[in-house]
Write a structure and sequence with these properties.
Layout (H helix, E strand, L loop, with lengths): L5 E5 L5 H11 L5 E5 H7 L1 H8 L4 E7 L3 H10 L7 E5 L4 H14 L7 E5 L7 H6 L5 H15 L4 E3 L5 H8 L4 E4 L18 H7 L3 E4 L1 H4 L4 H13 L1
Parallel strand pairs: 1-2, 1-8, 2-3, 3-4, 4-5, 5-6, 6-7, 7-8
Helix pairs in contact: 1-3, 1-11, 2-3, 4-5, 7-8
The structure holds the ligand O=c1ccn([C@@H]2O[C@H](COP(=O)(O)O)[C@@H](O)[C@H]2O)c(=O)[nH]1.
Ligand LLZGTKA7 binds next to strand 8.
């Protein structure tokens, strides 16, 4: 059965007015907005809360530090009430366990964000991974880190759409699988290496796709987001 896949719009900008305009443009089509390092560092966390407003917030801070620091950071940002929150799986089992515990302690049970572990960035191909010492390719590394995330009690994973099928085969239906590196047919890959179209990602088993520049750099961001949502619904 085809999985229902939602659209998360990545609002990558330093400007709060621009982010607000994009948030309004994508509102009819996107199930959540993603605000991350660029926006939070430039505009601050009050602006993150203001731009998200009532729209579910994917807070993509990709936490990666020692367990104590990551746990404390999660407690610090709990007032933002994100729907999803990211950390790097390569921070290790103890770090992910500490993050999970911090979420349980810092958020009310009915408002705990889904904790998502970033496995292998979608901008990395096998050659780039070899340069970091990972010699058996993105798929093997994603599976390895995905299993570690599940062991730590993480809710889901960020991966490319290329790893969705092996992850579903290995981990089943339960983990939330979120895929950036999405490019509608004919759009520029830019720095993304492991890419798929919205439809391909949905058919491969994504719960959510994350799309940034194909929407925000389009002449009409609202129309670009609507076209992607229509492709997912088809
Ligand atoms: O592996 C990852 C993890 C996160 N991202 C983020 O998703 C968006 C993608 O933006 P595009 O403009 O559609 O390329 C961006 O905010 C990244 O920080 C990712 O691309 N890959």
């Amino acid at each position: 059965m085809k999985r229902k896949t939602g659209l998360i719009a990545a609002l990558d900008t330093q400007n709060a007015t621009t982010a607000q305009a994009w948030a309004q443009a994508v509102a009819p089509s996107a199930g959540a907005v993603k605000l991350g390092l660029e926006f939070a560092y430039a505009a601050g966390f009050q602006a993150v809360a203001d731009v998200a407003g009532a729209t579910p917030l994917f807070l993509d801070l990709k936490l990666h530090d020692i367990p104590n620091t990551v746990a404390a950071a999660i407690k610090s940002l709990s007032t933002l009430r994100p729907k999803m929150l990211t950390l790097h799986a390569s921070g290790g089992l103890a770090m992910m366990e500490a993050a999970r515990k911090a979420c349980d302690e810092a958020f009310p049970a009915d408002a705990r964000p889904a904790l998502l572990a970033v496995t292998v960035l979608t901008s990395l191909d096998d050659h780039a991974l070899e340069q970091t010492g990972v010699m058996d390719g993105a798929r093997a590394q994603v599976l390895r880190l995905g299993k570690l995330g599940m062991q730590a009690g993480i809710d889901g994973l960020v991966c490319s759409a290329h790893e969705l099928a092996p992850l579903r085969d290995t981990l089943g239906d339960a983990p939330l699988l979120v895929t950036p590196g999405i490019r509608p047919a004919g759009s520029q890959a830019g720095d993304q290496k492991r890419i798929m179209t919205p439809r391909q990602a949905s058919e491969a088993g994504a719960d959510w796709i994350v799309v940034g520049r194909p929407i925000t750099q389009a002449a009409d961001p609202a129309a670009a987001a609507a076209a992607i949502a229509a492709e997912l619904a088809a």
